[in-house]
Amino acid sequence: MGSKAKKRMVLPTRPAPPTMEQILKDVREAPAEDLVFTSLAPEVSLGPSWRTESPEAQWEQLYQQSRAYVATNQRLKQAGDELRQKYEDLWQAGQELEQDIIQVKQVALSGATTTFSG
User: Fold this and answer.
1) Sequence-ordered list of residues with C-beta below 8 angstroms from that of 18, at least 6 positions apart, any chain
2) Alpha carbons 49 and 17: distance in angstroms, whole number
3) How far apart are the first and last CA of the chain?
4) Distance separating alpha carbons of residues 28 and 20, to the nearest angstrom
5) Which of 48, 45, 90 has the alpha carbon at shortest distance from 68?
6) CB-based contact 61:53 (threshold 8 Å)
């Protein structure tokens, strides 16, 4: 039997990851309307009209900001709980996979020894 030469695909080398200074520079230079800063931001924000609004309007705005903060905090807590549960599920699946691999190896070795001894 002849061996077939396998052609290996040569992948380009990965670029070096950015340094901490480069990351911080990117964050500092990002515009305020960048999706990273606006995707989770509450819809109510302190704007230039803060000083011209009535005290009641200011209190309402603070109240709405507090509600948005509490809602975001609850979403983060829920996401953290879900992430923790998924981690535990993955860890358990990994443990089961390791046990299955050990069993397959044992079956394969016992099959190989009976083939050679028979």
Assistant:
1) 26
2) 42
3) 26
4) 12
5) 45
6) yes
- Residue 88 is encoded by which pair of tokens? 């535990």
Percent above pLDDT 90 for the chain:
38
45 CB-near residues (< 8 Å, 6+ apart): 65
Q: How far is CA 68 from CA 17, 51, 77, 78, 91, in A?
A: 35, 21, 14, 15, 34
pLDDT tens sequence across 31-83: 877 777 666 655 545 555 555 678 888 888 899 999 999 999 999 999 999 99
- The alpha carbon of residue 99 and the mean position of all alpha carbons in its chain are separated, in whole angstroms, by 28
- CA separation for the pair 42, 26 (Å, rounded): 23
Angle (nearest 5°) at CA 101 between 100 and 107: 90
CB 51 within 8 A of CB 30: no
Q: Closest by alpha carbon to 114, among 99, 106, 101?
A: 106
Query: Would you say the pTM of this structure is higher than 0.70?
Result: no
Distances (CA, A) of 24 to 17, 41, 81: 13, 20, 29
